[in-house]
Structures are given as structure tokens and as C-alpha cells.
Amino acid sequence: MPEESIGHIDFDELNKKAVSQPLIKHIYTADPSAHVFNGKIYIYPSHDVDEGEAFDDLGSHFAMEDYHVISMDTPDSEAKDNGIALHVRDVPWAEKQLWAPDATEKDGRYYLFFPAKDYEGIFKIGVAVSDSPTGPFTAQAQAIKKSFSIDPAVFKDETGNYFMYFGGIWGGQLQRWRNGTFNASDEESPTAHLPKNEEPALCGKVAKLTTDLLELAEDAKDVVIVDENGQPLLQGDTERRFFEASWMHTFNGKYYFSYSTGDTHFICYAIADNPYGPFTYAGKILNPVVGWTSHHSIVEFNGEWYLFYHDSSLSQGVTHLRSIKVTKIQHDEQGFIKTIDPYIDLKALI
Prior knowledge:
Number of strands: 21
Order of helices and strands: HEEEEEEEEEEEEEEEEEEEEE
Number of helices: 1
Distance between the termini: 11 Å
Largest sheet: 5 strands, antiparallel
CATH architecture: 5 Propeller
Helix content: under 10%
């Protein structure tokens, strides 16, 4: 839920009513990208810190400097913090703001994909490599060529191809790339370069990766989300259109692109027959959580499906101090995902 809605919440009662509890409490973590490697769960979150930055719609208060990898034997077991896996000081091209990462594995090596602002204040996406899923990771000297914006999510298909989904509007700068190059206008409003409400919404991006997973093998393509009539969602359709937090999973041969609607605080999803889409909007996965952002991942473990997500309940609603969580999700017989309410009877607590 947005901050303006949580001023009177009893957080002790809220946590009792939550469908899940924070996995890690000694640090703040967010944007969990979960994967199963070698029979264990590894979570790649961002690491929230309180740097005293003023709140703004460009996300300046999200001043993260490093990544920790969290591991679990099962979704019900204790989560382990494996320490710092990568710090911004060890990324030659990056100045600040290590936002939501993801990771993948190929031939026994592990690849951490992450966004950061370069020394010109432009978000790019980098990659770092390790022989262990917990790191430490060694960053490439330069960001991925032709990369931009934030929230990389890497997906391996059945044929062994790897795709990177990415993008985020407002502070994620996706709107500044509408014409193919970065719009360096002095206009700092996060809505300055967005389409009009009646125009097609900005899309997340997807590109196949090269075989070494270090570069893009093609120019990024739009991840188009369409309505039940096959028409692209409009920018003004704020409860359904893409904002940030791309994720991809497959179920019964279908491709599920899930994402956050940002300022309306939902995790939604859309379904296609291939990794490029177009994707037909299918519904909401997660209703709003306490805090502002919503960012997630979906993973299968021992035949069950799980949603990893975050909220700000541990910090009593502080937007940029979040905690990762996990709960089960269910696909019905038609393949649709049952919407999750993150708290039981939340209205009674407000």
C-alpha cells in the first residue's frame, strides 16, 4: 500500500495478519529474484540502506551500494545471508544505486545481472561472474552494450537460449529512451517523457543474450501486453500496464510475463505462446503491500510454485527499507494464477 494509506496501521497486528514473515531481519532486503541451483534456493535481492536521501519520484532514496545472496534449503527453512557478493566500488563503470538484480547459471558458472547509474547519471545494466551461486562476483569492466534502464530478469528457455527482460519507468528512466537514445533533457519530472494516457503504454524490453551471456545478441524488443481484444494496453490503464519488475516463468508450455504496475502497487501477469509475445493480460498475482514498491519473482520447487516478494512491514512502513518474503501461488486448471492478499483482513487494521 502507498505510504499515505498506512499512517494508522498497527504493525504488530499487521505482521500477525501477514501471509508470510520476513526471511531476513538483520538487514533490509527487497526485489527478490529467486532461483533453484543444485537443489537449493538462492535469492538475489537488492540491499536497502538508510542513507537519509529525501523521498522523490525518481527513487533517489533507494541508495543501495551492494548485494547479498540469500540461500534456503527449502521455502520453509531458515534463510542464510551469505554476505556481500558485489559492491558498487568494485564495478568500474558504476557510480551508485545498485537496484534490483537477477542471476542465472550456465555450465557451472553464475552470472549476476544488475542495474546501476554510471558517472553520467544514466542507468545501465552490467553483469558479474562467479564460480559460486553466492559469489563473490567479479564485474565486467563495462556495462552491457546497448543496455539501458533497470530491473534485469534473465530467463532460459527449453532450447537453451537466454533472454533478458528489463525496463522501468519514472526513476528507471525507460521513458527517456522512447526515441532510441537517452533524452538528456533537464526536465526531472518522472512523467515528463511518458506517452499520453490515451496512447499505448510504454513496454518492458526483451533481448536474447549472446552465448557467453555477457552481451545482447540483438536489439531490444518491446514486450507488448494486449487486452482481451488484442489491443495494446494504454498508458492510462494504470492498474494493468507495465511499470517495472519484469519476470518470466513457464507453465504448461505457456510463457508468463509478470510485472509491477508501480504507482498502483499491483503485481500482474500476461500470457503468450513464445518468449517475445505479444502477451495477453491475465490478471493480478499480488494485491498491494505495505510500502510503495512491489517487486517479485516466481519459482518452482519440488513441484510447488512460490512467489517471492517484499514489503515494508518490518520497518513499519518506511518505503525504502523493505524485507523479502515468500508465499505459495496456485495455477488453476486453466492456468490462471489465484490473486494473493498479502494480509488477512487488512481493512480492519487501518
